[in-house]
Amino acid sequence: MKKSTLISTLAFSLIMLFSTNIFAQDFSGLDKSPMDAASYPSSYKVSDKQIKVVYSRPQLKGRDVSTLAPQGKVWRTGANEAAEITFYQDKMFGDKQVKAGTYSLFTIPGEKEWTVILNSDVNVWGAYSYNEANDVARVTVPVTEGKDSLEAFSIVFDGKDGRTQMHMGWDTLRIAVPIK
């Protein structure tokens, strides 16, 4: 009887060993520019959401912002896929009326001002297939200097009384886009 228990235990152990290897997955490490999201308002109650942006957060790692987001060229506003912004209700983006929906978010960095662009093309990689003909709205905002340096590109929202600002920052550069 002991012999059959030993054989059964050994057989079960071998089955578990091989089945574990069959179902093992290779998971990649943390992305070099991890995906993040920012929303307004930032409460956890989904029904309160008015705006959400999903973007990847490139990091400086000793490089200049101007090499990662060149001045005068359309930039994907982050890394990897173009950032996407969703408005859950009609909004004014700068001085342009924008219908509720999801848009890609591009920027054209400049020394003193950045142009922030909503484009109807979504699910696009980078700015390689950017098509200006599909722009929905553009707003040009001044660049200001922050006190602290941000290693990773960041987007946050703040607002009150129906007025919202989407803040973008990287290194000491800051811009604020008015949304209402």
From TrEMBL:
UniProt keyword annotations, A-Z:
Signal
Q: Does the keyword Signal apply?
A: yes
**What domain of life does the UniProt record list for this protein's source?**
Bacteria
Under InterPro entries, the record lists:
DUF2911 (IPR021314)
Q: Which residues form the signal peptide?
A: 1-24
Name this polypeptide is given: DUF2911 family protein
Q: Which source organism?
A: Xanthomarina spongicola
